[in-house]
Design goal:
Layout: H1 2-16, H2 27-38, E1 43-48, E2 55-61, E3 69-74, E4 93-95, E5 98-100, H3 104-116, H4 118-124, E6 130-135, H5 143-155, E7 161-164, E8 173-176, E9 179-187, E10 191-192, H6 202-221, E11 236-244, E12 250-251, E13 254-262, H7 266-289, E14 296-305, H8 315-324, E15 330-332, H9 338-343, E16 347-350, E17 365-367, H10 368-386
Parallel strand pairs: 3-6, 3-7, 7-16, 8-15
Antiparallel strand pairs: 1-2, 2-6, 4-5, 5-17, 9-13, 9-14, 10-12, 11-13
Helix pairs in contact: 1-3, 1-10, 3-10, 6-7, 8-10
């Protein structure tokens, strides 16, 4: 795999030069990857977002059949603003076996390795396709992966396995919590603070809502799945911020509450949302509207990213154990797009080069040794698919 490693490093340098922070377009990088994959005979589909500013790429080498293996990575990176870098972050540099640049480990290193291996797959893949899935906006809510799954549904494409190459030091990860983020808005009725019964204090109703979140926070402890390996083992809720009102003596007409939950299982998220819906419909809103019929509570979904739930039967884990020689799989606290693919019906794991400890930091790097391990793993995947 010496040639493939050299190709991976060169390709990674090209990818780092695309400054694909989430707030800007990724179209140039997607076009570059599409060209590279098409040159190896891959069938490439590009799915643009609603305004044509960003795109997902989905490419296939091998037969166009169900049950293929997806190699997945996100194209966007986090900003470098106000970070103290030793070198220009969008020009890859090498020092003592480390490759530095924004996105080297999170997660253009894996993308580079997968695309560099495309010629190898093209020579060997016969009965089961290899897919390449490169998405946008993972760092701000996994919006690209959610849109990609919708695109695959529309085209009737049903892969069987997903390998998400987030940086895990090539450890196999079979589980992580979800991340559901919300902003709940409270609209009441302003008035003079000396006559509280003539107004609807949005801050006070928001505080009651927080109280309900605290009750749910305690209830979720008892719902922890038996043998859960997460830390903590139950679904968590966090109240991030509460703001509203304009002055000491004015009844607050508006309030805004920012909060999140991190489910260990999808059923917990539904449990919380159903409870809050009933609480608002049966208790808070009737009390508010008894004074102001136009009073309202609305919850804005910032992002709902499914967790990756460990399952007993996981073909992706079985394959990766064969390819890496590992005999265990772990869970991690950080989120990925893996749960989105799992919800679509694929078995999924997270495994990729580099350390999450380097992600999002100045002087982000991936080691050449980690890239070599990734290339070797993908080479064994090619051999497996040639049998």
């Amino acid at each position: 795999m010496t040639t493939q490693l050299s190709d991976t490093v060169a390709l990674l340098g090209d990818l780092i030069a695309f400054p694909t922070v989430s707030e800007v377009s990724n179209l140039d990088m997607i076009a570059y990857l599409a060209h590279r994959l098409e040159a190896e005979g891959a069938k490439v589909d590009i799915f643009h977002d609603e305004i044509g500013h960003k795109a997902n790429l989905f490419a296939t080498i091998g037969p166009e059949t169900d049950g293929g293996i997806v190699l997945s990575g996100h194209s966007d990176v986090v900003p470098v603003d106000e970070q103290d870098w030793s070198s220009y972050p969008f020009e890859m540099t090498e020092h003592q076996g480390h490759l530095y640049g924004r996105g080297t480990c999170d997660m253009k290193g894996f993308i580079a390795a997968a695309v560099a291996m495309a010629p190898y797959f093209a020579e060997r893949v016969r009965d089961r396709p290899v897919h390449f899935a490169f998405t946008y906006d993972e760092e701000v809510g996994c919006f690209g992966a959610q849109a990609l799954v919708d695109s695959l549904k529309q085209k009737g494409i049903r892969p069987g396995v997903a390998i998400i190459g987030e940086p895990t030091m090539m450890r196999i990860i079979e589980g992580h919590k979800g991340c559901y983020e919300y902003t709940t808005h409270f609209h009441g009725l302003a008035g003079h603070g000396s006559s509280p019964d003539k107004g609807v204090n949005a801050v006070e109703y928001a505080a009651r809502y927080v109280g309900r979140l605290l009750e749910l926070k305690d209830a979720l402890r008892a719902r922890a799945p038996a043998g859960s390996r997460f830390d903590p083992p139950w679904t968590t809720i966090n109240t991030g911020s509460l703001s509203g009102g304009v002055a000491h003596n004015v009844i607050a007409s508006i309030a805004k509450l920012e909060w999140e939950m991190r489910p260990v299982q999808a059923a917990d998220a539904q449990f919380v949302k159903d409870d809050l819906r009933r609480y608002c419909d049966e208790e808070l809103l009737p009390a508010m509207r008894a004074i102001c019929p136009e009073a309202e509570i609305t919850t804005e979904v910032i992002g709902e990213v499914d967790g990756l739930e460990p399952v007993d039967q996981n073909e992706a884990k079985h394959i990766m154990m064969e390819l890496t020689g590992a005999n265990t799989a772990d869970v991690v606290p950080f989120g990925t797009e893996a749960g989105i693919f799992q919800q679509y019906g694929m078995s999924a794991v997270v495994c990729g080069p580099g350390s999450i400890d380097q992600a999002h930091k100045p002087d982000e790097y991936v080691s050449v040794d980690q890239l070599q391990q990734c290339v070797d793993m993908l080479g064994r995947l090619g051999e497996r698919l040639a049998d």
